[in-house]
Description:
The complex is a heterodimer. By secondary structure, chain A is of the alpha/beta class. Chain A has two domains: 4-129, D-Maltodextrin-Binding Protein, domain 2 (3-Layer(aba) Sandwich); 131-190, Winged helix-like DNA-binding domain superfamily/Winged helix DNA-binding domain (Arc Repressor Mutant, subunit A), CATH 1.10.10. Chain A contains seven helices and five strands. Chain A has helices at 12-22, 38-45, 59-68, 85-94, 106-154, 158-172, 176-190; strands at residues 4-8, 28-32, 49-53, 76-78, 96-101. In chain A, strand 1, helix 1 (12-22) and strand 2 form a beta-alpha-beta unit. Chain A starts with a strand and ends with a helix. Chain B is α/β, with parallel strands linked by helices. Chain B has two domains: 4-86 and 206-256 and 290-344, 3-Layer(aba) Sandwich (D-Maltodextrin-Binding Protein, domain 2), CATH 3.40.190; 90-204 and 283-288, Periplasmic binding protein-like II (D-Maltodextrin-Binding Protein, domain 2, 3-Layer(aba) Sandwich), CATH 3.40.190.10. Helix content of chain B is 38%, strand content 20%. Chain B contains 16 helices and 15 strands. In chain B, helix 1 crosses helix 11, helix 12 (245-252) packs antiparallel against helix 13 (262-270) and helix 14 (300-314) runs antiparallel to helix 15 (318-328). Classes of the chains: A alpha/beta, B alpha/beta. Chains A and B meet through helix 3 and helix 4 of A and helix 3 and strand 7 of B.
Amino acid sequence: MKLHIVIVEPDEARAKLVIDCLLPLGHQVTVIGEASGLARRVCDIVPDIVLIDMSNPSRDTLEEMALASGPKERPVAFFVDRTDRDLTQQAIEAGVSAYVVDGLQPDRVASVMDAAIARFQMFRRMRVELETTRRALEERKLIDRAKGILMKARGIGEEDAYALLRKTAMDQGRKVAEVAGALVTAAGLLS
Amino acid sequence: MNLTSLRVGFVPLLDVAPIVIAREMGFAQAEGLGLELQRAPSWSSLRDMLLWGKVDAAQMLAPVPVAMALGLGGAVARLDILQVLSINGDVIGVSQALADRLRVLGHDFAFTDARRAADDLGRAVDAPLRIGVPFPYSTHVELVTYWLRNTGLTYELCTIPPPRMAEALAAGEVDAFCVGEPWGSVAVELGAGTLLLPGRAIWAVAPEKVLAVRHDRADANPALTGRLMRAVWRAAKWLSVPENRLIASEILARPEYVNAPVEMLDRALRGEMVISARGEMRQVPDMIRFFDGAATFPWRSQVAWFAAQLARRQGLDAVRSMAAAKVICRTDLYRQNLRAAGADLPGASEKLEGSLHHPTAVASEQGQMILAPDAFFDGQIFDATTDLR
Lengths: 191, 389
């Protein structure tokens, strides 16, 4: 029997990557992108499993549904209630939370979670890489501005300006970008 | 100096102030602690971060550890309450459409009388009211439920993250909300709603957020727990000095903390609330309180009140629920760790709730404890030793 899985994810590209890993398992997958009216839409779909990024603030809305399942609704259990603590720990590390209908076979939940966790781990890595790249780019901009300031103030060439920054950084045991940042701030204050 | 690093989780709200100030004003450092503050996107995520060891301590909605002690809401471990971070600080607001109907009916928006507000609300609505709250286990839910329980008003509670509350009200997802500051003031500023009541009009000393840790961790390293408690307690004391309010607002406004305008944060701290887009101002003494009137003490009777309300709605045994809730209040650690810091300690760890209408001196170690008025809007008195309602 195939499961109906809902993914709550505003980013279409990310949602597609999760769909791509779940469809081969033979499940039906629906994506909800908007936070507005989330509870009603999930209720209408009646899914077996709902997956949501832990960093999504709308998670608390799902939490309410999990707690408030009345006699007419299908009971929803917290994933964190599940006996498999390893799997829960992995999910939390990867940053994905899951709400699972009560009574679903643990092995079926595990296969979905394994796939989702792998995908979210990939997202996490991508996020870290993106952040590293962004920071490197900002640092380079900062160093370029500091070089410009030095070239103008001391009448030296670009290479000499960089050498001066690097030497100062080494002498002070700091990063070149930090020295450049201090110089740019100081120049801003003095101008 | 080598600092012991400690991870503390929070949700962007004004009442995280004692934790942020403990870090920013050096109270943590003075205890040899390097606080790493981690902002959580939702209460469920923060709860999971605390339960699964991603943070060592957290700002938490007071009823969350209580619900867990009662076995509700995905209880995988026991959480202990070390001290109270804030008293009051919530506001109830209504949509512009509902505010207009209330004005037509002659409601005065005096921002003080919870009984009259409920009566007028009952006359103004003809369909079930949808009320936005931040989390199913929250002071907000308990206040709203208690306030409306005998009115015959039908309503539905909808969970909405606090920073989204203004947007949800403007979009018509909800007709009203109960939310912690500054998010009520932000809704006013965006023209989405008008404020009807401060939370304190329902219960004058509602514990709002607490400092929570996992039970096993509280006792695993008692010295570390004590250092955290003292740093946060001294920060609360600092916050009680009126001259420090603006500095606090400016620090909290930063993007990494609450990420809201300084002016919005300042309103609740000063108790000068702007309740409508017309700029109507209301003075609210004790709009939010961090320190005075033994605010930081984790009164067992206060968590017992939460437990009694939860038990009644969930059909649990009230006596057993109150007993289970009282156990997680670490009044023992509070007395042990804060006595040396200079905290005045009450002669008892429980009291009648709702019996004080004026500031009242009570028995304490230093003989200087004055409790603030703690009345419920309906005049009820809650006795945690016998009350079975």
